[in-house]
Specification:
This protein is an alpha/beta fold. The chain has a single domain, classed as STAS domain (Transcription Regulator spoIIAA), CATH 3.30.750. Strands 1-2-3-4-5 form a 5-stranded mixed beta sheet. A hairpin with a 4-residue loop joins strand 1 and strand 2. Helix 1 packs parallel to helix 2. About 25% of the residues are buried.
Length: about 130
């Protein structure tokens, strides 16, 4: 398995880890699990770490992922994508802010309110350690 999915109900955080190629089965399972978590808790926080990513996903998975994001954007108060893969950061900046794992976990991800106090804004003003 190249992905892992963990839920932390006490903090309403979903953590997704990717290492390699994401299969359609893994993708569908993660979306279904995340949808159920959103239904249970309303507003959640999302942390995605990408160790390696094998390009070659089915294009329909990209589309389905975007549709899921648009549908659920209002239910995600915080989002961090953590990776040292250079091309991940520009792609993720459209909706989230990439930063160092230590800050994502210890800083704004654990705060009760998203950056700037805006529920739809998912980019913190800065991603440097306080």
């Amino acid at each position: 398995m190249t992905t892992s999915y963990k839920e932390y109900p006490d903090t309403k955080i979903v953590e997704i880890h990717v290492d390699g190629e994401v299969t359609r089965e893994e993708f569908d399972t993660i979306l279904a699990d995340m949808n159920d978590f959103i239904l249970r808790f309303g507003t959640i926080k999302l942390l995605e770490s990408v160790a390696t990513f094998k390009v070659g996903m089915d294009a329909s998975m990209v589309w389905d992922g975007m549709m899921f994001d648009f549908k659920n954007l209002r239910h995600i108060s915080h989002c961090a994508v953590v990776s040292d893969i250079g091309w991940i950061s520009p792609l993720s900046r459209a909706a989230v802010h990439s930063c160092q794992p230590s800050y994502a976990l210890s800083g704004w991800m654990k705060s009760p309110q998203p950056a700037n106090g805006c529920k739809t804004q998912m980019q913190p003003a800065s991603c440097t350690s306080p």
